[in-house]
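FORM 12-B: Structure-to-Sequence Request
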């Protein structure tokens, strides 16, 4: 029995030493241009999937996909998400595979996951990937609108579609976000993007 326990302890020490050596001697590739291995991808992917499933809010998207809300969602999407996830200008973002794991191209292939799951991932982000947590930058209401926009992006009412295309054509005019910027804008200039109603 003693020999068995000693064997287990030695094995654990060898594994711990191996992990230490790999990190200490610069053997673990950390560049974003190193794709994760199959095992890491499978385990981390499943962990993320299940965790978001377990923690997502109950119920469906509280936002009705009315034109106003979809335009508001499109605006936030173009401003904050299109760079990595593809948008009106480039359906496939050039950044797609500059991130590892790569950024899913949400416009090109609309995710099947339910809105609550997409909302949770948007709000909290995914650790050790390029996906940021948007909590505190976007309000819950804005995030639900972004999700509604993504989900309807292949079947938008014509006026929403054209408003979205215009945003991509003039990216500088997308409304800024932080309260300070809002105040600033309103002080010095009239609202830049006319609300379509
Ligand atoms: C800097 C790049 C970057 C930005 C900006 C970004 N994301 Fe992501 N996003 C990622 C990456 C990378 C992943 C993949 C994470 C993974 O594999 O677990 C991801 C994953 C997601 C997913 C999960 C999709 C799926 O089917 O697995 C959603 C939803 C999402 N992002 C929404 C958004 C929204 C909404 C915004 C804007 C508010 C946004 N992202 C901004 C990089 C980004």
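FORM 12-B RESPONSE
SEQUENCE OUT:
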């Amino acid at each position: 029995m003693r020999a068995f326990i000693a064997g287990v302890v030695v094995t654990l020490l060898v594994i711990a030493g191996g992990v230490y050596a790999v990190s200490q001697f610069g053997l673990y590739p950390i560049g974003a241009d190193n794709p994760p291995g199959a095992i890491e991808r499978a385990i981390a992917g499943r962990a993320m999937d299940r965790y978001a499933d377990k923690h997502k809010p109950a119920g469906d998207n509280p936002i009705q996909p009315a034109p106003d809300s979809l335009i508001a969602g499109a605006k936030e999407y173009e401003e904050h998400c299109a760079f990595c996830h593809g948008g009106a200008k480039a359906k496939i973002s050039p950044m797609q595979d500059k991130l590892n794991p790569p950024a899913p191209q949400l416009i090109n292939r609309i995710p099947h996951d339910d809105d609550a799951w997409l909302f949770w991932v948007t709000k909290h982000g995914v650790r050790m990937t390029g996906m940021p947590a948007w909590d505190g930058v976007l309000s819950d209401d804005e995030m639900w609108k972004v999700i509604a926009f993504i989900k309807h992006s292949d079947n938008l009412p014509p006026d929403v579609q054209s408003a979205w295309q215009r945003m991509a054509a003039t990216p500088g005019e997308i409304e800024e976000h932080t309260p300070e910027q809002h105040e600033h804008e309103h002080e010095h200039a009239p609202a830049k993007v006319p609300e379509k109603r």
